[in-house]
Structures are given as C-alpha cells and as structure tokens.
C-alpha cells in the first residue's frame, strides 16, 4: 500500500525525498496541487477544502497513509493559544509569545 504525500505545490518534494531515503522500498504517490497554488493567500476554509480534496484523491489512489507536506498557513492564521485567549498579535506582527506563532 503506497504512502501519499500532499503539498500545495512543489515544496513537498523535499519531504518525499527524505521519505524515499528513509524507506527506499516503500511505494509513494505524490500530489502537488499546482492548479490552486499558492494556498497562503486563500481563506482558511478554502485551504481546508482543497486539502481535504487532495487527501481524498490520494486515498482513492489506494494510499494507506497520507502525509501533509504543505506548510501553508492562511494570512490571518493564529495559533491555538491566540484563538483561546483572544490574542490579536498572532503571526502577522510576531507579537505573540507562543512558540507556534514564531
């Protein structure tokens, strides 16, 4: 059963290369969604929908595991701590002290 690797573009190819180096006998299916790149300029809901569609396609191709190699965050992304506490600093200003915002 192949391992799927999903990315919003081509950056996930480095993840795929690392997987191949570590598990050379494993089969892989790579899906880079260049048609919708870049993801980072899109609203979070759209990124979520595009990601779900990509994962579904890889599962349909017979992948037993899908790795999300995409590191996209929506422009207005805030870490869990910011969402929980109502912090407005978030990633845009790098004013939040949570490690996930840095």
Number of helices: 4
Shape: globular
Give the biggest beta sheet.
3 strands, parallel
Secondary structure: number of strands: 3
Mean pLDDT: 82
Strand order of the largest sheet: 2-1-3
Structural class: alpha/beta
Radius of gyration: 16 Å
Number of domains: 1
CATH topology: Rossmann fold
Share of helix, binned: 25-40%
Strand content: 5-15%
CATH class: Alpha Beta
Distance between the termini: 37 Å
Q: What would you say the CATH architecture is?
A: 3-Layer(aba) Sandwich
Strand and helix order = EHEHEHH
Segments where pLDDT lies below 50 for 5+ residues? none
How are the elements arranged and paired?
Layout: E1 3-7, H1 13-22, E2 28-32, H2 44-60, E3 65-68, H3 80-85, H4 90-93
Parallel strand pairs: 1-2, 1-3
Descriptive terms for the model:
Rossmann fold, 102 residues, 4 helices, alpha/beta, 3 strands, 3-stranded parallel beta sheet, single chain
Structure explained in plain terms:
The chain is 36% helix and 14% strand. The chain has 102 residues and is an alpha/beta fold. It has one domain (3-101): Rossmann fold (3-Layer(aba) Sandwich), CATH 3.40.50. The chain has a three-stranded parallel beta sheet with strand order 2-1-3, with helices on both faces. Strand 1 (3-7), helix 1 (13-22) and strand 2 form a beta-alpha-beta unit. The termini are far apart.
């Amino acid at each position: 059963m192949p391992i799927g690797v999903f990315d919003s573009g081509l950056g996930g190819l480095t993840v795929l290369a690392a997987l191949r180096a570590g598990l050379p006998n494993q089969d892989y299916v790579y899906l880079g969604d260049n048609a919708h790149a870049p993801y980072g300029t899109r609203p979070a809901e759209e990124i979520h929908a595009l990601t779900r569609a990509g994962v579904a396609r890889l599962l349909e191709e017979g992948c037993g595991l899908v790795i999300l190699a995409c590191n996209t965050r929506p422009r207005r992304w805030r870490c869990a701590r910011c969402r929980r506490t109502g912090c407005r600093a978030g990633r845009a200003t790098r004013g939040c002290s949570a490690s996930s915002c840095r």
